[in-house]
Design goal:
209 residues; mainly alpha; transmembrane; membrane; cell membrane; Threonine/homoserine/homoserine lactone efflux protein; LeuE-type
Length: 209
Amino acid sequence: MQSLTPLLTIAGLWTVAAVTPGPNFLLTIRLAAARSRAAGLAAVAGIGVATAVWGLAGLLGVHALFAAAPWLYWALKTAGAAYLVVLGLTMLANSRRRDVAPAAAQPARGVRASAAFRLGLVTSLANPKSALSVASMFTAALPAQPSMLLGACAIVLMVAISTLWYAGLAYVFTLGVMTAGYARLRHWLDRAAGALFVALGMRLALDRA
């Protein structure tokens, strides 16, 4: 029972973090609606791996590492910000193209499962503040010296929550009504998504935390 309480706390905190719209949300629904459910799920797999990485980093005390080597945090943050900005600008550039056929009729064009996986992985890893958030969450919810089993269970729980949530999004956004709506509004939606990615990248770059 003592082990269950911190896991329930982590489940609640991570669920809130996962369902809050951000880069992972935008990437998953865009790949699913514009390409295919397989592409969306491949991105979800990448997000799941990234969640495990951040969970392990938080468990091993990444906060202390960044405090000891602030240049490392700065380098990771700068690289992540640059990635998000470039991804957003790419979306903005692609939104100006005129497709011969609607996007919904070309579900898998140009996106392999491996490429979608990498997009999900790198997009989720782009923000090193995620590691600090996980570290803070573990500090608040877990005992001072958690057992390896408890730490592993916490990470597995985080991965399961992220995977289920984003896989659900990938399923919903490949339903006929969603793909048809995306096809009609693709150029505007891609512009909005691209602008949001650029804004997120700029915000990360300018954040002094």
